[in-house]
Fold:
Amino acid sequence: IKKQWNDRLVYQYGRISLGPAFERLKIAEKWRTADPARDNNPVLLLTLGRLACKSQLWAMGQSYLKQSLKIQAEVETFHALAQCYEAEGKENQAALTYKEAILQLENK
Structure:
């Protein structure tokens, strides 16, 4: 990924459970800062959000996931955001996010 960017690999990087999520988050943040265009990459933002939430950095994770949704509203990203809210104990916010995901599905 350092030498040749690949969204599919970045996506998988956020889904695997190999090693501490915080360490993987630091690596993924380096990818983002290495190229300013990646600030608008919804796949990288989804990965960053997932890793931040797995690291219990709730606000950071939610921010990344919301940025990803602004660029590209995907049901999977809504789901990741809702899971992050649930893990933080914000069940009401999670329920609203699930509702948004359902509305997104209906509009597709």
Observations:
- The chain has one domain: 7-106.
- The longest helix spans residues 91-106.
